[in-house]
Structure formats: structure tokens, C-alpha cells
Design a protein that fits this description.
Elements (H helix, E strand, L loop, with lengths): L1 E7 L3 H13 L5 E5 L8 H11 L3 E4 L15 H17 L5 E4 L6 H11 L4 E4 L19 H11 L2 E5 H11 L3 H9 L5 E4 L21 H4 L8 E4 L11 H42 L1
Parallel strand pairs: 1-2, 1-8, 2-3, 3-4, 4-5, 5-6, 6-7, 7-8
Helix pairs in contact: 1-2, 4-5, 6-7
């Protein structure tokens, strides 16, 4: 497990001291940088941070809230301009990958068409809730269903970034069991994850800090790959008061992971004991 902390391209000055401290204390392993459109003046500061402290980066591309929509042909010119900036950030920071949202309404084949032209740097498509948070009764997100993500992956060659909270919201809308939804998305072999808390039976995505919602992390974590990147998507763009709550998120996930490891160890030990008992019984009966 590699823990990542999400940041916003225009917020370096608010968090730089906390970022340096937490990275040097090995509390997180990489930064996932959300690139706002028309924020090129901040790139040099992020590059300097990377070069000075050797911090790895991934990139999160802007989405519908910033005016991008890969699913709609009428957005193409703006999308292309914005992704040129995103790719500049990604290459300058030697990003491991770029997380991309498919968009709203529109058409999945249009996503594939635009991606083939725009070519997001080392793209990983992210699953979404089924309904738009700000307009849930009128707008639908692309990439809410596992079959849509699979179709995009197969037709673009991109990877997959699995957002657990998004899939829970989609499950509520689609009337699918939330844990069954995890199993379905896991068949797509996610290469990275987004973690945030929420309300288990709410179709709206909330992005609470871990422990502030009612997700059962002790049940969730054993179902996902512990050898991949886990980005904490709990810092909101409105936060400007330091990373104290994110630091608590890191502690929370480490404690839950440790409990899960102990549980798995005890279950394995019990299973091996039962197997040994069966073998001994069979041997005695021969």
C-alpha cells in the first residue's frame, strides 16, 4: 500500500510546510495533484517541491465542475486546451499516471474519440457515481457502471482508478449491493484507488474524512488490492487550514489496515488448523 494525498494546483502555499513535514516523516508516499485550468503559473512551485524533496506525483485532470466534459462533442475544443495544460503538468512532474473522469450525459463512444485525439498522459479512467452531485435528478455521470469502464479501457488502452465511494453511490442509484459492486469493479484490476468516507445509503458523493461517515472500512479494505496506490480524496478545495484532518485520515487507514491484517492472519491460522485436523483424522482412520 502506498498512501497518496490529494492536493490542488493553486493551493501549494497553504499546505507546503505540512506536506514537507508529513513526507519526511514517511506519513504518505506521493501527491495526487488536481490541475485547475489556467493554473500554469503554479507549475514551477510544484516542480521545485518535487525536485527538492523527491516527492512522486500522480495527476488528477479537471472535470465537469471546471467545464470539461469528454462525453460531449460540443466541449471538445475546451477539453483539448485544458488537457494540453494537464499534460504539461504531468510531464513536468514525471507523473506516474493521470486520473480522468469520463464526463456527464453524452456518449461513451465520444469519450473514446476525444481521448484518442487528446491523449491524456498515462491515463487511468475513474468510475463515477450514477448521478451528478449538484443536479442528481437531471444529469448522469459516465463511467458509473463496471461495463462502461471496461468498454473505455478496452477501446483506449487506459488503466483504471477505482473510487470506492463513487461505486457505493452508484450502487444505491442502480439498486445493487455495495459490496457486490466492489467485486465487479475489482474484476477490472484497478491500478490505483481513491478513498473517502460517505453515507452508505446515499446516492450523492460527499467525500467525508475517514471515520466521519458510516462506511465499514474493516470490511472494505480486505476486498481491494493492498499493493496499489491509495489516494486520500478527503481534502476539499475549500480547505486552507493545514492538513491536520488529512493526517488523521492517514492514521485511520493505517489502524484499520493493521486490524484487517490481524483478522486475515487469524482466519488463515484457523483454516490451517482445521485442514490439519482433517488430515490427522483421515490418517488415523487408514
Amino acid at each position: 500500500m502506498r498512501i497518496g494525498v490529494k492536493q490542488f494546483s493553486n493551493k501549494l502555499e497553504f499546505f507546503i510546510e505540512d506536506l514537507i513535514r508529513l513526507f519526511e516523516e514517511k506519513e504518505f508516499d506521493y501527491l495526487e495533484l488536481f490541475v485547475h485550468p489556467a493554473n500554469m503559473e503554479y507549475l514551477d512551485g510544484w516542480v521545485k517541491l518535487k525536485q527538492t524533496y523527491n516527492i512522486p506525483f500522480s495527476i488528477h485532470a479537471p472535470h465537469f465542475s471546471q467545464g470539461c466534459n469528454l462525453a460531449d462533442k460540443s466541449f471538445f475544443d475546451y477539453n483539448k486546451m485544458v488537457y494540453e495544460q494537464v499534460n504539461t503538468y504531468a510531464k513536468a512532474l514525471d507523473a506516474e499516471y493521470t486520473v480522468v473522469h469520463g464526463g456527464m450525459d453524452g456518449d461513451v463512444d465520444e469519450i473514446i474519440r476525444q481521448v484518442s485525439i487528446i491523449k491524456p498522459y498515462k491515463m487511468r479512467i475513474e468510475n463515477k457515481p450514477y448521478v451528478a452531485p449538484r443536479n442528481p435528478d437531471k444529469m448522469l455521470c459516465r463511467g458509473a457502471k463496471p461495463e462502461e469502464i471496461k468498454y473505455i479501457m478496452e477501446n483506449t488502452g487506459c488503466g483504471f482508478n477505482y473510487d470506492i465511494g463513487h461505486s457505493f453511490c452508484a450502487a444505491v442509484s442502480l439498486k445493487v449491493d455495495q459490496y457486490e459492486m466492489i467485486k465487479q469493479f475489482e474484476t477490472l484490476n484497478p491500478e490505483s484507488y481513491h478513498l473517502s468516507d460517505g453515507e452508505f445509503n446515499n446516492r450523492i458523493d460527499i467525500h467525508y474524512h475517514l471515520g466521519d461517515g458510516d462506511y465499514d472500512w474493516a470490511k472494505i479494505l480486505p476486498m481491494i488490492d493492498h499493493n496499489k496506490n491509495w489516494t486520500l480524496e478527503t481534502l476539499t478545495k475549500k480547505d486552507t487550514k493545514g492538513l491536520d484532518l488529512v493526517e488523521k485520515d492517514i492514521d485511520f487507514i493505517k489502524k484499520i489496515k493493521k486490524k484487517s491484517a490481524v483478522l486475515i492472519f487469524n482466519q488463515t491460522r484457523t483454516f490451517l488448523y482445521l485442514i490439519n485436523q482433517v488430515i490427522n483424522t483421515n490418517y488415523k482412520n487408514q
